[in-house]
Amino acid sequence: MRRPVAWAATLALFVGVLVITAPAPARAATVQGSDTVHGGLYSNTWYAGNDLNSLASATGKRVTFGGTFGDITENPGPAIPGQWSDTRGRLEEVWRGKATPFYNLSVPSFSFSNATLDLWVDHLELFLDLGGGRSLILAPLQEMNGDWTAWGCNPPAFKTAYRRIVDEIRGRGIDETQVRFAFAPNGRTTPGCGTISSYYPGDTYVDIIGISAYRWYDGGTVQEVMGGVIDQLAASYPTKPLMIAQTAAWPSSSKDQWIRDVFAWAAGHPHVVGLIYFNFDNTGIGESDWRVWIPPDVNQGWKDGMLRSTTKYEWPLTSWFQPGALTLTFPPGVNLCPNGADCDTTGFQDAGGRFKILSYATSNTSWRTFYF
Fold it and tell me: How far is CA 131 from the centre of its chain?
C-alpha cells in the first residue's frame, strides 16, 4: 500500500513551446489562537456516527472532534479493501458523525514488533484510502507519564516507541495532509516518573500537545484542574497548538457551571484550540458517570458551552491538514497576559506533579521545580 509520489509540476505543450505550470502555493498550516475553541466528544458507543449525529441534533451544534481509543493489536487479519477492519471501522464511525477522529493508540508493551505495527498501519490506510478529505489526529501511547499504563513511567522507551510509530506512518507516504500527531500526557505526572518534558519526542514528531485533565470528586476550578499545566506547556512549547484531549467533570451540583466555565476558559486561553469531553460511565471501574450526553438528554452546561459564539465547528478540518508544520498563530495585537498587562508568569510543580501558577500556589508547601 505504498503511495505514489506526486510530481510538483505539470507539463503542457502549447504552440510548440514546452510550458511548465507550477501548482498553486499550498495554504499555510496554521492554527489561529485566541478567542476560539473547537469542541469534541468521546462517544461511549461503537456506532459513534449515529451517536454524534444525534448529539448534534440535541445540542444545536456539531463537534469538530470525535475521540476514540484503539490498540495496535486490534486487527488480527490482513487489511483487505472492502472487508471489515476494527481500525477503519472506529475511524469511519467518527467520520460518519461529521467529525475528525482524535485517536488514542495503545500498545500491549514497548516490545511490539515491526510486523504488528505494519499491520496496524495497513488498516489505517483502509480508512484514508476512502478519500473525501479523510484525516485524523493520532495520539500514540497517551498518558505515558502515569503509572497506570503499560507504557508508563519510562521516558526513553516512550520516545523511541512514539518515534517508531510516526516514522512508519510517514515512511508509507502518509503525510501531514492526512495525519497529525499529538503528544498527549496526563495533566498530573505520577511521582517518580519524571516530568512531562522528559517524555517529549521532539518538535519534528509533534504537531499538537493534548493533555488529560479531569475534575474529580474533590472539585476544583478550571484553572486549578488544568490551568497550571497548560500555562507550563504554553511557556515550554509556545508554537504548538494545545488541546484538552480528555476532560470530564465528576457529578455534583456545580457540574453544569464547571462545563460552561471550561468552554469559556479554553476559548479565552490563547494557546488552547480544542477540548474533547469523555462521555463515559466509568462507575464499574471505581470512577463515576462522567457523561453529559445520555440520549435523548444533554447536559445544559455542555449545550451552553457548545452554543457559545467562540465554540467553532469545522469538518473536514482542512485548515489543519495542510503541508508543513502546524504552527500556532495569533491575531495582530493579541496580548498573552491577563487583562492586557505586561507580565511574566511564575509557576511551580508540587510533589504530586501538578503545575500551578504563582497566584494559585499554596503556602507552607515545598515545590520541586519552577518555570516562568
Answer: 22
Query: DSSP label at 71?
Result: E
Stretch (H or E) spanning 73: none
101, 99, 100, 93: which is closest to 49 by C-alpha? 93
Locate the DSSP E strands across 219-362: 242-247, 272-278, 293-294, 297-298, 311-312, 327-329, 347-349, 355-357
CB 233 within 8 A of CB 213: no
Asked if residue 173 lies in contact with residue 2, where contact means CB atoms within 8 angstroms, the answer is: yes
d(CA 161, CA 163): 5
Rg of the chain taking only CA atoms, in angstroms: 21
Q: What are phi and psi of 239, to 5 degrees?
A: -95, 0
Residues 6+ apart with CB under 8 A from 230: 211, 242, 244, 269, 271, 272
Cell of 319: 485548515
**Residue 2 has which C-alpha cell?**
505504498
φ, ψ for residue 352, nearest 5 deg: -85, 0
Q: What is the pLDDT of residues 133-172, one digit of tens each?
A: 999 999 999 999 999 999 999 999 999 999 999 999 999 9
Q: What is the pTM of this model?
A: 0.85
* Residues 174 and 128: beta-carbon distance below 8 Å: yes
